[in-house]
Design a protein that fits this description.
Largest sheet: 5 strands, parallel
Strand order of the largest sheet: 2-5-8-1-9
Distance between the termini: 31 Å
């Protein structure tokens, strides 16, 4: 009798790696805390995405240390960091690289030589990604999905790990180019970076106006990160947790059987299959970060907002009532039974699973 690898327990060697991952998580948070004040939830979601091989959109007003957070994380992980300032005149070759004609001094022959662009790093900060035209935005698609760029007829592999962090400013939207839905779907999470509390802002003012600034220490190497990414894939997940993740995602699809009335009233369309994949992968990474070797429905619930908020689109009715994507997701989570066996007994979810 063969064992389903998706539900098989981790082995003793894996359990050692789980402890190492949890310790690394705590150490990274400590080191980031020497530079970044607060933003614990944002840091946790960034690390979950990193260990799941995902990419992240960070949205927040200027001055919330988004860039500093990302560059500090890269230093903690001993990874190459590259910042790309997306502007209206940025061209695809400016980020992927280009071929130049160069003369061979020994033979005198001319040959094309590829000059790598800033995408050839481990951590990419795509700053204000919605300020550049779609042609340049699309240049990221192949890199994010295939871990490669194509210049001319040649494909160039990108290094591993490869982690794209794109920032957006929610205030100034004039002259911007909203990301196409196909590209937004490539991002595992959309994370909101919010204002700090009074106590946190007081500490920020104290630290950033002092003479000495703290520097983070290196915690993990690139190869260690790759090992931990492979470990995340091996975390077992039960059918109940998979069905729960599917129930959340399928309830966002307008017109499907069993969809709640408020979803039909407030949404234009819902999330696709990639949302389920990222929910499960992220839940596996979160379970490990919390020292568990199995996934629970609470892991799915904790990641529902960052995974789904950029994959659903609200309509005019929702806008007129002040309803946001987060409002819809929170209502879906609140109304979906999480205990094992409850989904199968509910008539509404029988329709959803039978569709």
């Amino acid at each position: 009798m063969t064992t389903d690898p998706s539900t098989a327990p981790l082995q003793s060697d894996d359990l050692v790696a789980v402890k190492k991952l949890r310790d690394a998580f705590a150490d990274i948070k400590t080191q980031l805390g020497r530079v970044i004040v607060g933003q614990d939830a944002v840091i946790e979601e960034l690390l979950i995405a990193l260990f799941s091989r995902g990419h992240v959109i960070l949205e927040g007003v200027p001055g919330l240390a988004k860039t500093l957070m990302i560059s500090t994380l890269a230093r903690c992980l001993s990874l190459d960091f590259s910042r790309i300032q997306f502007t209206p005149d940025l061209m695809p070759a400016d980020i992927t690289g280009t071929e130049v004609l160069e003369e061979n001094r020994s033979s005198g022959a001319r040959e094309l030589k590829f000059i790598a662009g800033p995408l050839f790093a481990n951590v990419i900060l795509a700053d204000e990604i919605n300020r550049t035209p779609p042609k340049t935005q699309a240049a990221l698609l192949e890199a994010m999905q295939e871990r490669q760029v194509t210049v001319g007829r040649t494909r160039h592999r990108l290094g591993d790990p490869f982690f794209v962090l794109a920032t957006q400013n929610p205030i100034e939207q004039e002259g911007t180019y909203p990301l196409p839905e196909a590209q937004q779907d490539r991002f595992m999470f959309k994370v909101f970076v919010r204002y700090p509390s009074f106590t946190e802002e007081l500490e920020i003012a104290r630290r950033t106006t002092a003479l000495v600034m703290n520097e983070p220490a290196m915690i993990l190497s690139g190869n260690q990160i790759l090992d931990l990414q492979r470990l995340v894939r091996r975390v077992p997940v039960t059918d109940h947790v998979l069905q729960y993740a599917l129930a959340l995602v399928r309830q966002t699809r307008v017109g499907e059987p069993g969809v709640p009335k408020h979803v039909r009233d407030w949404l234009q369309w819902g999330a696709g299959p990639r949302a389920v994949q990222y929910l499960v992968l992220g839940a596996k990474a979160r379970a490990l970060l919390y020292g568990r070797t199995h996934v629970q429905t609470e892991d799915i619930q904790a990641l529902a907002l960052p995974v789904l908020r950029h994959r659903i689109l609200t309509n005019f009715t929702a806008a007129s009532e002040g309803v946001t994507p987060d409002t819809v997701i929170e209502k879906i989570v609140a109304e979906t039974p999480s205990r094992e066996g409850e989904l199968q007994k509910d008539e509404r979810f029988k329709k959803i699973f039978a569709a």
